[in-house]
Write a structure and sequence with these properties.
This protein is α/β, with parallel strands linked by helices. The chain folds into 2 domains: 159 residues, Vaccinia Virus protein VP39 (Rossmann fold, 3-Layer(aba) Sandwich); 46 residues. Helices cover 44% and strands 22% of the residues. The protein has a 7-stranded mixed sheet, sandwiched between helices. Strand 2, helix 3 and strand 3 form a beta-alpha-beta unit. Helix 4 runs parallel beside helix 5 and helix 8 packs antiparallel against helix 9. The longest helix is centred in the last third of the chain and has 23 residues. The radius of gyration is 19 Å and the shape is elongated. The termini are far apart. Bound molecules: S-adenosylmethionine. S-adenosylmethionine (SAM) binds next to strand 2 and strand 4.
Length: 232
Amino acid sequence: MNTERLSNRLAAVAAFVEKGAIVADIGSDHAYLPCFLIHTGQVQHAVAGEVAKGPYDSAVRNVRREGLADAVTVRLADGLLAIEESDAVDTVTIAGMGGPLIATILENGKQRLTHVKRIITQPNIHAKAIREWAVHNDWKITDEQILQEDGKIYEIIVLEKGQATYDDVELLVGPLLSTEKSAVFLEKWERELSEWHRVLDSLEKAEKTEAIRIKSEQLKEQINLVGKVLAI
Ligand code: SAM
């Protein structure tokens, strides 16, 4: 992967960025995504936000090496604090982290989202946290994608302003992904189901504490929900 050729995962995120958007990529290790978007002419200006010094330095180096310092502003900042009013950012991308961390970044910085029209997230795990954050904060899911690369399965969730409600199954597996039920979607949830069954078996052999009882009940509930989706 480099600034001109992205992984399939990041290329899929890039494809959801509208032409002419002003993008802030949060957690922009290497600044690959913003540089790619400028190279392809998809956007004219982007912000790359990074909280950790090492990845920030690497983003700065890449942007300079590509001669893109006028087009990509790299900031060392926690989450959405990388976005300044004068940037006029209308699209945020947050990729390659766990769903709960992405949801925390959105929650902690939501005052910076006033002018943002689209949020493109790519959680590595626990995408449900993002869907729950969206519902509680008046963002609706306008697109979802699931893809497999190097044996790993990734989800992409696109949010736009608006109200929506989703039931427990939709929050867990995605309202659009569960309608589409692609081969990758089925594989992801088959994998999760077998992992949950494995954990449940070992919990049932363990000493029966209250914590174990609660965890077993939660697992059974999830197995039941996902089992129904796969059975339809
Ligand atoms: N977005 C890139 C991708 O998808 O390939 C990089 C993913 S990398 C696994 C996650 C990056 O997010 C790390 O560089 C980490 O330092 C950064 N990060 C984690 N929490 C952050 C936060 N609160 N604000 C900004 N960056 C953060």
